[in-house]
Specification:
665 residues; alpha/beta; OB fold (Dihydrolipoamide Acetyltransferase, E2P); Rossmann fold; 20 strands; globular; binds adenosine-5'-diphosphate; binds magnesium ion
């Protein structure tokens, strides 16, 4: 018999429902925490605004009338005397409750206050008055077959039974923070006394959650320290000659990154480093030098990009920079013929290729390396965690370098990249000018055309971005195909206009991109396929139609396509709708600020891709709001991990839970 069935009133059916919520044991049940709380405190209707959520009680003064409509629906109306006013009440689909509402009955209503009509549109109705002392009611995530309040009842009755609970936080830390102990916290969170005691319990449980997470992160990091990697002996003079051939002078930040990477590679441990740098800060060259160092020490390298267009660009870059050297570089693409692909794969497996560039297909099942020493992931935020796992599946423990243009605010970096070393490229190459960002309405298109014309006259090039490829039902939105026609009519006499979008074949895309790179095409109308990585320094203007439809980070990435040379560059945002994002764009060019704002506007959401949904789900903690707790948890977990106690098995429970959760990953 499942231990759950011992709880009064729980039968096999309920057990099944609980199992669907991943509740199998008493401990699962009591640690099934609420996700929010309702505070049952009588509202003051005088201070409430139209449509505010209110809680009010009173005595039924006019009994309900019920109307039925659309077969199964019904609406019940009645009146209660609240002591201050005669309040009208309506509630849907509660006809079954009618007979409870005789005149003189006291009821509590929760719902929306329609102040204009002095009516509460209730979503909940209960018999009895609101308790004099404000009550806090936990609300749980549930599944069909059980309501939050039913689950609450079950949890409450289980709290009075025997249950085991392990406090994973070491005693000395419980003392340090005056935490009340987990058992008490659990009671409190399901049966809150008052705001203060609930908050204290929440803090304890949040801390535990973050502490366990940080323990895990730190262990991952530590494991890597002991994981035997490739120990190389690359000297500065090995790379000096190569660096001296690069057609520009590296910035100090770029040189610092290269040095860090060199030391990482020379150390016996596995490298796992993230290079963060704003769009256009010059991360690619750092990657290329790393590939060179890796080659020099006798290993193969893989350079992975999120799109084929970008992979092609990296490939061309490598060919150019390694032109005079015997380094064999290859590009693995999806459009390769079977025979061609097999030949390439055979060469990779026999070390006849030194460096391979491609998309995630670099780690397809049929790809084998002879001696892979370095994997570089460009625009790593585009990939998420799954890719890393694939590397591990292949049994590869190579050095890894991640490049990312999406700076993660410090708040998130600690958790997200807790197991990596991070370097930043803050300085842009010398001579770069601030990109000028301007906002226009569609009716001002003439002015915008003038500006484009002006750039073309100076032999510069222009990107034009639209969200859609072709006309759709929502015809207010510009699309690539029509814009191509429009721009050809307007400027076709003085320049060549081309288009690029995701529905084109790889060959077509490549042809157009290469024509744009050679300045055989001056205006490139494109969807967001060019959003990341593309580097054509002669392009000095990007015009974004319907720009209100883009997210802030996306706009910043798109803007980063220009301002890559020493010419003044422009970003023109066209929009008939106002949006806070657009005005932020006109105010700052700083990627860190932009990402902070982006987080503020929509939370950590999309930026992390799969990483967010996979690694970072907390039940109670919110990494932004609870940042101070996170910082403490991070420091404490480091201390515990490095302590004798941990080594000697003093914290055996802690060790067990962490090791078992890690083996699941
Ligand atoms: P991102 O960091 O966005 O990937 P890239 O690596 O594509 O940026 O570099 C943007 C442009 O700046 C490229 O054309 C690159 O050749 C150039 N660049 C990189 N570093 C320097 C430098 N130190 N001095 C001048 N130009 C540089
Ligand atoms: Mg890049």
């Amino acid at each position: 018999m499942s231990s759950l069935e011992r709880i009064k009133g729980i039968g096999p059916k309920t057990v099944q429902i609980l199992n669907r919520l991943n509740i199998y044991t008493m401990e699962d049940l009591v640690t099934y925490y609420p996700y929010r709380f309702n505070i049952l405190e009588r509202s003051n209707l005088k201070d409430a605004f139209q449509d505010d959520k209110v809680i009010i009680d009173g005595i039924v003064e006019r009994e309900p009338t019920v109307v039925f409509f659309r077969k199964k629906m019904n609406k019940m109306s009645f009146e209660i005397n609240t002591g201050e006013t005669l309040l009208k009440a309506t509630i849907f689909n509660r006809a079954f409750f009618k007979n409870n509402l005789k005149v003189g009955t006291s009821v509590t209503l929760i719902g929306k206050y329609d102040k204009l009509h002095n009516t509460i549109v209730a979503s909940e109705i209960r018999l009895g008055m609101i308790p004099a002392v404000p009550q806090i009611e936990p609300i749980y995530h549930v599944t069909s077959g059980i309501s939050s309040s039913q689950l609450h009842k079950i949890i409450l009755s289980s709290l009075d039974q025997n249950w085991e609970i392990v406090d994973y936080i070491p005693d000395y830390l419980l003392g340090k923070y005056h935490f009340p102990g987990k058992r008490q916290c659990i009671r409190e969170i399901h049966r809150p006394g008052n705001n203060a005691s609930l908050k204290q319990a929440m803090n304890h449980l949040k801390y535990e959650e973050l502490f366990l997470f940080m323990m895990k992160m730190n262990i991952l990091k530590k494991k890597r320290i002991y994981e035997k990697g490739i120990e190389r002996a690359i000297s500065q003079s090995d790379i000096d000659e190569f660096i001296s051939q690069i057609p520009f002078e590296l910035t100090k930040d770029q040189l610092d990154c290269v040095e860090k990477i060199r030391l990482d590679m020379n150390s016996p441990r596995v490298m796992k480093r993230l290079i963060q740098g704003d769009v256009g800060s010059g991360k690619t060259i750092v990657a290329i030098i790393s590939l060179y160092m890796n080659y020099k020490s006798g290993y193969q390298g893989a350079f992975m990009a999120p799109t084929e267009i970008l992979a092609e660009q990296h490939y061309q870059n490598l060919l150019k920079l390694f032109e005079k050297m015997p380094i064999k570089v290859a590009l693995l693409t999806g459009k390769m013929k079977k025979k061609e692909r097999n030949e390439l794969l055979a060469k990779l497996a026999n070390k006849k290729i030194d460096i391979v560039v491609g998309t995630h297909s670099l780690f397809s099942d049929d790809v084998f390396y002879d001696c892979l020493g370095l994997v570089i992931t460009d625009e790593q935020h585009r990939f998420g965690v799954r890719q890393r796992t694939r590397l591990k599946e292949k049994g590869i423990s190579t050095d890894v370098l991640y490049l990312s243009a999406t700076p993660i605010p410090r708040t998130y970096a600690i958790t997200l990249y807790g197991d990596m070393d991070v370097s930043n490229i803050r300085l842009k190459p010398k001579g770069r000018k601030e990109i000028i960002t301007e906002l226009y309405q569609n009716k001002d298109i003439k002015i915008v055309l003038e500006k484009i014309h002006n750039e073309i006259r100076q032999k510069h090039q222009v990107y034009v971005i639209a969200t859609q490829i072709e006309e759709s039902e929502t015809d207010e939105i510009e699309n690539v195909k029509e814009l191509k026609g429009k721009f050809e009519r307007a400027l076709g006499k003085i320049c060549k206009v081309e288009m690029l979008h995701g529905k084109m074949s790889s060959e077509e895309k490549e042809k157009i991109m290469s024509a744009f790179e050679k300045n055989e095409v001056q205006i490139l109308i494109s969807t967001t396929v060019i959003e990341v990585g593309i580097d054509v320094p002669n392009a000095t203007m990007i015009v974004i139609f319907d720009s209100y439809r883009f997210g802030l980070s996306q706009l910043h990435q798109l803007r980063g396509r220009v301002g890559r040379g020493n010419f003044p560059s422009y970003c023109i945002l066209l929009s008939d709708r106002e949006s806070e994002r657009l005005s932020i764009m006109t105010k700052t060019n700083d990627g860190f600020k932009i990402s902070e704002e982006d987080f503020k506007l929509r939370g950590s959401g999309d930026l992390f891709g799969t990483r967010q949904s996979g690694d970072m789900k907390f039940h109670l903690a919110d990494i932004k709001q609870d940042f101070p707790i996170l910082v403490r948890a991070k420091e404490d977990s480091e201390e515990v991990l490095n302590s004798q106690g941990y080594v000697n098995g003093k914290y055996s429970h802690l060790r067990e839970i962490i090791e078992s959760s890690m083996s699941l990953d």
